[in-house]
Amino acid sequence: MNGVLVDLTKCIGCGSCTVACKMYNKNEWIEDRAATDGENALLADENWTVVRKSVVKIADRPLQEGESGEKWRYSKMQCLHCKEPACVSACPSRAFQKTEDGPVLYYPRNCIGCRYCMIGCPFNIPKFEWDNPLPKITKCMMCNGRITKGEAPACVSVCPTKVMKFGNIDNLLDEAKLLVQSNQHYVNHIYGEEEAGGTCWIYISDVPFEKLGFRTNVKKQSYPKYTSTFMHNSPILGFIWGGILACLYFITRRNDVKTAAKKNKKEKEEKA
User: Which of 26, 112, 154, 167 could be a cystine partner for 20, CB 3.0 to 4.6 Å?
Assistant: First the structure.
């Protein structure tokens, strides 16, 4: 399974990845909508990739001469392509599907517009085209057309400072662990290693992820597993519930027959 390792210490906030994403996916630039970079950058139906700027206070060491007490960090945001995606589990029409190569894909022809994917995603990734008369759900699909050819996603290929590395997710995770363990510069947290059961985009940073706008209250267990027991037992529960309803029907039907028989008998007695 493919994935991407993102080293946030290397990002300079140039926005090349956001441009590549727009061009490859033919998404429009809309000036009066959500920004693709800066402190107000937001994922939106036309923004599948953004670079968020965070101003972080330096509090872990004394300031040196000329330092302002702040440092800037840039965080590339997009769909994390969970190993066990909640959007896939929540979708009743198979509009979302996980591929063996890693990407979580969206098939608009299957979509019924229920937006359960938006509710189910712990990272708040899928977006709805509110201004479109024929709306769809949109999100990063990891440039699946490139991945099937053995190529890296467009955003990865254009990065001038090599912030991102594309490859086998298990190998990338091993590399991330080695970097974190061998360099105290990094915080002891690989974002995406455990979040939501693991994701195909993983991050390392020298700043705690909660200070960069990442959701750190995401549960470690994959979200589909919370409902797997119920779904596994649902045929049994359905059979039991069907039996109960059948019994209630026969009891009600028998009472109706008895009531009708008594009514007929009474009417005959009154006529006689």
Answer: 154
Q: Which helix (H) or strand (E) holds 106?
A: strand 104-106
Inter-residue contact 41 to 52 (CB < 8 Å):
yes
Joined together, the tokens standing for residue 62 give 């004394």
136 close to 108: Cβ distance less than 8 angstroms: yes
More confident residue, 132 or 186: 186
Q: How far apart are CA 107 and CA 95, in angstroms?
A: 5
pTM here is 0.81
C-alpha triplet 203, 206, 211: angle, nearest 5°: 80
CATH 3.30.10.20 fits 2-223, yes or no: no
Helices (H) and strands (E) in the chain, counts: 7, 10
Average pLDDT of the residues in 118-146: 95
CA-nearest of 75, 4, 64 to 37 is 75
Rounded percentage of the chain residues whose pLDDT exceeds 70: 83
Q: Where are the domains of the chain?
A: 2-223, 228-272
